[in-house]
Amino acid sequence: MRGALLAVGVLVLSASAAQAQNAAEGQKRFIVCKACHTVEAGGRHGIGPNLHGVFGAKAGTKEGFAFSPQIKGSNIVWDEASMTKYVMDPRNFIPGNKMAYPGMKQEQQVKDLMAYLKEATK
């Protein structure tokens, strides 16, 4: 009985670890974002805005970047949940926005990306 409980415990812990956010993996996922975005404080805008300080910021308010009216009028304050939805399906989350990226579809990759962005943009 004790062995069975131990085996179940190991499986549960393994499943939890697989679902955890991994910033190092997220940094690898950011490579596709890096074509348009920077994350460092004072970083330049590219095709997309610099993302430094994005969490907690109102969408469409980053100084010096020309956002679409759809982003400006979205009334979204970026947090992990809204950023996750946007990264997974930007065209449908905010219809009419200018982001050409089709979305990151694998949930674990998005979780890892969020872990990286939370560290890199604070």
Secondary-structure-derived class:
mainly alpha
CATH class: Mainly Alpha
DSSP strand count: 0
Strand content: under 5%
Account of the 3D structure:
By secondary structure, the chain is mainly α. About 50% of the residues lie in helices and about 0% in strands. It starts with a helix and ends with a helix.
Write the layout of secondary structure elements.
Layout: H1 2-19, H2 23-29, H3 31-34, H4 69-72, H5 80-88, H6 90-93, H7 107-120
Helix pairs in contact: 2-7, 5-7
Gist?
Helices cover 49% and strands 0% of the residues. The chain has 122 residues and is mainly α.
Keyphrases for this structure?
Cytochrome Bc1 Complex, Chain D, domain 2, mainly alpha
